[in-house]
Amino acid sequence: MTPTIHIKETYTNPNSFHIYFSYAGKKKYTNLPTELQKLVHLKAEKDEFVGKDKDLIHIERISENGIEHFVVVGLGEESSHTLKVIRSQMSKAVQLARKVKALEIVIHINDHAKNVQSIVEGVCMGDYSFDTFKGKESRKKHPHIQNVYLVTRETEEIKKAVARGINSASALLLARDMVNTPASHLHPEILVEHARKIGNKSQGAVTITVLDEMECNKLGMGAFLGVAQGSERKPAFIILHYKGSGTHKFAFVGKSITFDSGGLSLKPSEGMMDMKIDMAGGAAVLGVFDYLATQKPHVSAFSDVYGVLPACENMPSGKAIKPGDIVTALNGKTIEVLNTDAEGRLALADALVYAETELKADYIVDIATLTGACMVALGQDLAGLFSNDDQFEKKYRSYAHYTGDDYWRMPLHEEYLSQMKSSIADLKNVGGRYGGAIKAAVFLKEFVKKAKWMHIDIAGPAHTDKGGASGWGVLSIIYFLEQIIKV
Ligand SMILES: [Zn+2]
Predict the structure, then answer these.
(1) Range of the domain at 307
(2) Are 367 and 285 in contact (CB under 8 A)?
(3) Which residues surround ligand 1, an ion (CB under 5 A)?
(4) How remote is the CA of residue 171 from the centroid of ligand 1, in Å?
(5) Which of 257, 275, 370, 442 has its CA 20 to 30 A from that of 352?
(6) What is the whole-number distance in angstroms between the Cα of residue 63 and the centre of ligand 1?
């Protein structure tokens, strides 16, 4: 649930939590009530507030009517500030509001009308916490923000930006919720339900197709089904579709292993603890389609936008795939499975071939919590991105930058493919100890023919130890598809 957003030219209430913006060096507190300006100045001097990113000033005014909070949010240099800074600073200010149990916040927009969508996104992100499984008491202790007042002139543009911001934030938070939900409550069947819900609320704008085990088998998805065969739960291959007006076809493929035990190559308990998140790629895809379903944006670059989720569990059992088994992917390539914990690339292999040959996508992005190696290389802030097309990557980079979906481009070093060759099949699914993220990418490339393609390994940023799921990828792909900001 996102808070209710109101647009008001003026708003007063003695118990409010007020938020103002300030750029670096300007000491622009002129929007504050005059009696507070001096206080803010003093506090700013004391805290060495310079309005840089990450700076916040917080002042409380206590009266018999209650406690009023004033927060000045630093946005960095005026010339260089990005939507990402606004979003993250807003989020921080709202977290502070929740800490002091404010139920409403008042945001003084002033000259930030053009940033309203990001402001709304930041508010919703800051207000988010995963409390589906929390008891009543705990919920009462940490109440959510109920109402947000944007103090500004109500224009058509502002109204539209608010609506877009709510839709994109809801999409992001839906993805976070799905990733945070334990595997007992989120398995392939539930992903299908989520997809169908998105289809229903779109009123025809998003259509859903689900291929069951038999249909996948008939098509020849031996790699995906090889992963799924150890689980009691049936796999589901989910396809979402949205129409645009362009000439190209775009497919967004998300790794959707709803629980990854490692299979017979069982993970140690430490490594298995947060493996409910192994469907974060699929959750990002569903998040994007949730936005398409509610916002119904005009997508001018693509004639068709597809989402593809090869959803299953990776479990050990008497039926499970064994190390040394050979599977045949949808494009006829055979893969010797030497480690059943390198399962994501198997499921993705079939999904990539499906996207290009069946859906005829000529632009494909896959997003996956794929390798621990990528996290070792880049940490938890950055995704690793691999691409066979510089222009595609460059275009996406600007949107990723503006939305805070940060990544580092990694090399698609083809020479490593020789280490992924099997002596008894075309490929094997692991290739030695070093360069694991690159080898996985090079492996996946064997399942893409001509399409312009990006593979994004989000093993690091999909999840933070402190905040749970991040929803990485939802906003950047939404902005990329809609291209509503000039970059
Ligand atoms: Zn695995």
Answers:
(1) 182-482
(2) yes
(3) 260, 341, 343
(4) 26
(5) 275
(6) 57
Given the structure tokens 């693509």, which residue do they identify? 302
**Considering the entire predicted model, what is its pTM?**
0.96
- What per-residue confidence (pLDDT) applies to 98? 95
- What pLDDT is recorded for position 43? 80
Residue 373 lies in a domain: yes
Residue 238 lies in a domain: yes
| Residues whose CB falls within 8 Å of the CB of residue 366, separated by 6 or more in sequence, listed in order | 252, 253, 254, 255, 281, 348, 351, 352, 444, 453, 454, 455, 456
CA of 453 to the centre of ligand 1 (A): 23
Catalytic residue IDs: 267, 345
Q: Which has the closest alpha carbon to 370: 360, 361, 378? A: 378
Report d(CA 431, CA 443) in Å as an integer.
10
Residue ranges of the chain with pLDDT lower than 50? none
* CA of 13 relative to ligand 1 center, distance in Å: 53
